[in-house]
Amino acid sequence: MSQSFTPISSLGEFGLIDRMQSRLADIPRSENLIVGIGDDAAVYRAGDTKLHVVTTDVLIEGVHFDRTFIPTSYLGWKAIAVNVSDVVAMNAKPLYATVSAGLPRNFSVEMMDGLYDGMAEACKAYGMELVGGDTSTAHALYLSITVIGEVDEKDVVFRRGANVGDYLCLSGDVGGAYAGLKVLLDQREQLENMGDSYEPDLEAFQYVIRRQLRPKARLDVIEGLKKAGVRPTSMIDVSDGVASEVHHIGLRSGVGATVRVPAVPFDPETRAVADQFMDDVDAYALFGGEDYELLFTVAPEDVQAIDDMEGVSVIGTIEEAAKGVRAYSPDTGLMPLHPAGYQHFDGPPQTDYETFDGEEGPSFDDTEFSGDGA
Ligand code: ADP
Ligand code: MG
Question: Which atom of ligand 1 approaches the CA of 55 most closely?
Fold first, then answer.
C-alpha cells in the first residue's frame, strides 16, 4: 500500500494550524468556550462574569534560542514573559503557570538554578504563581510553559473587533529584538572566525540585546489603558512582527488597515544597528519579531486618551477589508504591506512591500501567511 508523504513545510505555520483545527472539528463544543484556536489565548467562562484565558508557548534550543548567548536566568524570564504577553493581549491578568522542562545531558544543576531563578523573578514581576509542570530528559533544552489568566467578561479583548474608522496603536518601540539578534549572530560569527583572539563588544548594544534576551510583557500597558478608561476594540501581541500582526487583526476582524511607516517607533540603538548592517530600519520595525509589544485598535472617541498616554503611539487607521493592509510613507506613497515576518535564526526580515498600483489592496488570502516564523 502506498502512503503519501506531504512535507509539513508545504503548509506553512498558519496553514498547519488551520489543518490541525480541521481535524478537531468534530469535537462537541462546550457552551462555556468563548474562543478556541485562533487568538493569542483560548477564553472560556469560569463564573457568572469571570472568564479564564489559557495559552502555551514552547522555547526550544537551536530553534528559539542559542544557549551560548542567553544566560539561563534570562531564558527562564523570557519563557514566562512570552506567555504572559499572550495573556495580556486578551486584556487579562496572568495568575498561574506550569512548566514542562526537557533537559539535555549537558545541562547542569547550576544552570537549572539560573533557569528557575529567572522564572521566579518573572512570576513575581507579573504577580503570578508557578504551580506545577513536568520533567524529562531531552536531546536539546526544551521549555513548554502554560499560563492561565483571568478577565472580567466586560473587559476581554479579541483579535476580532476592530472597526473601520478605528485607530491602530502600538506600545513601546519595535525592531529592537531583531536588531539584538543581528548583533548576537554577528558576534557569534566573529567568534567562530577569529577564535579566542576575538573579544565580543556587547556594551554598545545593551538595549537591543536586552530586547532580544529579556523581553517584557506589557501588563503595565493594559493597566494604563484601564486607568485611562480605554478598552481596545481588538488586540494582539507583537511576536511575529508588526506587519504580520496587523494582518492577523485584519483577518479576524474582517477589515483592512493603513500603517503610517514614519509613525512606527524604533529606538536610536535599533537604527544604529540597522545602519551598521546597511539595512532599512523600517524593515526591522515592520517585520522584525519578538518585541512583545501590544498592537491594538481603539474607537475614534478614545484616540485623544491614547495621545495623552506615554509610551503608546498611534501608527495607522482601520479601513475596509477591500483595501487590504497597506503601508504609507511620504517617500513611497501607499503600498501593500505583506505579512512577511520573522524567521528564527534565518536571515534578515524581508522588506516585502511593493509599489501599490491598484484600487484594490491584496485580499486576505491564507496562502499569504505561509513561510512565517514560528
Ligand atoms: P501566538 O503567536 O499568539 O502564540 P500562534 O500563532 O502560536 O499564536 O497560534 C495561533 C493559534 O493557534 C492559537 O490559538 C494557538 O493556541 C493555536 N495553535 C498553535 N499551535 C497549535 C497546535 N499544535 N494545536 C492546536 N492549536 C494550536
Ligand atoms: Mg500572541
Answer: 16
Atom of ligand 1 nearest to the CA of 14: 6
- Ligand 1 proximity of 37 Cβ (cutoff 6 Å): yes
**Which residues have a beta carbon within 5 Å of ligand 2, which is an ion?**
40, 86, 237, 239
**Ligand 1, residues 17, 22, 57: which to mutate, most atoms within 8 A of Cβ?**
17
Q: What is the pLDDT at residue 195?
A: 77
More confidently predicted of 187 and 112: 112
Superfamily of domain covering 167-368: PurM-like C-terminal domain (3.90.650.10)
- Give the residue among 177, 182, 171, 264 at the shortest CA–CA distance from 222: 171
Q: What is the structure's pLDDT at 296?
A: 98
Q: Give residue limits of the domains in the chain.
A: 31-152, 167-368
Pocket lining: 253 vs ligand 1, CB cutoff 6 Å: no
* Sequential DSSP letters for 180-210: HHHHHHHHHHHHHHHGGG-----GGGHHHHH
Nearest to 316 by CA among 295, 302, 333: 295
- Cβ of 368 closer than 6 Å to ligand 1, yes or no, is no
8 C-beta closer than 6 A to ligand 1: no
The three-point CA angle 106-108-113 to 5° equals 145
Which residues, 6 or more positions from 361, have their beta carbon under 8 angstroms from its beta carbon? Answer: 256, 322, 323, 324, 325, 326, 336
May I ask the CATH class of domain 31-152?
Answer: alpha beta
β-strands 312-320, 255-260 pairing: antiparallel
Dump pLDDT digits (tens) for 52-93: 999 999 999 999 999 888 999 999 999 999 999 999 999 999
Distance CA(80)–CA(82), nearest Å, equals: 6
* Residue 228's pLDDT band (cuts 50, 70, 90): very high
Q: Cα(215) to centroid of ligand 2, in Å?
A: 14
Q: What Rg do the C-alpha atoms of the chain give, in angstroms?
A: 21
User: Which atom of ligand 1 is least distant from the CA of 36?
Assistant: 14
- Confidence band for 193, pLDDT divided at 50, 70 and 90: confident
Tell me the residue type at 356: F
